[in-house]
Amino acid sequence: MSEQDFLSQEEIDALLGGGESEAEEESSVEELSDIRPFDFDELESIKKGGFPGLELIYERWVKLFREEVRKVLPKINMVSKESIYITRFNNFMFNIPMPSSYTTFTMRPLKETALLVIDSRLVFTVISVMFGGPAKPFKVEGREFTKLETYVIKDFIDIALESLQDVFSAVYPVDVEKKSIELNPALAKITSGNEKVIISECIVDIDGFEAPIYFCFPHGMFLPIKEIIYSEFQGEVDPVWKKRVHEILLQTDVKVALELPKQTYLMKDVLQWKEGMELVLDIEKDEDAYLRISDKYKFRCKVGKIKEKYAALLKTEHQEEEAENE
C-alpha cells in the first residue's frame, strides 16, 4: 500500500468535523465575551407611596418646617414633600453634588444613625438671595463652604431636626439628637454601601428656584415601629376647613316634630273616618310624648301649656329603638 492510499491529517480532521468544531468553539467564545453576568444586587427596590405613615409624618414636617424656617429666612417661599423611596446607600451618596452638608443624628429609642443632607445648591441660592442676588442655579464645585454659608447650614439643620422631633413625637415619642456635621461624605457613612436606605426627599422653593433636602434612614431603623411607618392612619385636619364646616352645620335648618304615643287601628276602621269624628286614644293624660329631630327620636317629653301655648318639657334623652318598641 503506497503513501497515497493513506489519508492526511487534514483529511481526517475534515471527515471527523474537527475543523468546524474548532471554528465553532472560537466563534462561541467570541460571542460569550460580550455577555456579562447579571448581578441581582444591582436591582433597586423603589417603593414610592409604600410608607403611608412616614408620608403623613413628612407632610406635617414640611408645614412646620416652612413656618419655622421663614422666621429666619423669609426668602423661602415654599417647602414641599417630593417623594419617599428605597435605594442603595452608595447610589444615594453618588448623586449628591459636592460640596454638601451631611448631618448624622439619632432618634432614640430607635437604634442606628440617620442622615440629613443639605444640598449645596440650596445653601448658595439662599446666600445669593439674602444679599440681593438672583435665585438661580450656578456652578458650585471646587470649593468648600464659607463661614457664612456654614452658619446658614447650621440654622437649617437645627430647625429641620427640631421640627422632625415635634411631628414624629406626635405618633411615637423620640429624642432627636444631632451627632456631627460633616462636609466630607466619607465621614458620613451611616451604613455599608450596598445596604438599602429609605430616602425622604423634600423640595425648598426660593423665589422660584427649587433645591432638595434629603433625610436618609437605614432600612432596618423603623422595624420596631413598622406598624406606624407602613400603616395608614388618619391625617391632620385642616383647622380652617374644620372651622368652616362647623359654621355651616350651625346654620343648617333641622325639622323638629312632637309625636304623641302611637295607636294601632284596623284598616276597616280607618276607611270609616270622616271629618269631625273624634278619635279615642288608649293613652293616659300624663303619658310622655317624643320629640323627633330630622326623623330621629331624641327626647322623651311632657306636654303642657305656657301662657295659652302648647309646650314640651324635655325630660330625658331617648333612643329611637326604645321608642319604636313601645
What features would you describe in this structure?
- It is built from 10 helices and 10 strands.
- The chain is α+β, with helices and mostly antiparallel strands.
- The protein folds into 2 domains: 184 residues, 3-Layer(aba) Sandwich (Chemotaxis protein chec), CATH 3.40.1550; 45 residues, no CATH class.
- The strands form 2 sheets. A 6-stranded antiparallel β-sheet has the order 1-5-6-3-2-4. Strands 7-8-9-10 form a 4-stranded antiparallel β-sheet.
- It is elongated, with a radius of gyration of 39 Å.
Give the H and E element order.
HHHEHEEHHEEEHHEHEEEH
Main beta sheet, described?
6 strands, antiparallel
Count of β-strands: 10
Total tally of structural domains: 2
Helical amount? 25-40%
Mind sketching the topology for me?
Blueprint: H1 9-16, H2 18-32, H3 52-72, E1 76-88, H4 89-94, E2 101-108, E3 114-118, H5 120-130, H6 147-169, E4 175-182, E5 196-206, E6 209-218, H7 226-230, H8 239-250, E7 256-259, H9 267-270, E8 289-293, E9 296-306, E10 309-317, H10 320-325
Antiparallel strand pairs: 1-5, 2-3, 2-4, 3-6, 5-6, 7-8, 8-9, 9-10
Quick description:
The protein has ten helices and ten strands. With 326 residues, the chain is α+β, with helices and mostly antiparallel strands. It folds into two domains: 184 residues, Chemotaxis protein chec; 45 residues, no CATH class.
Supply the key terms.
326 residues; alpha+beta; Chemotaxis protein chec; 2 domains; 6-stranded antiparallel β-sheet; 4-stranded antiparallel β-sheet; 10 strands; elongated
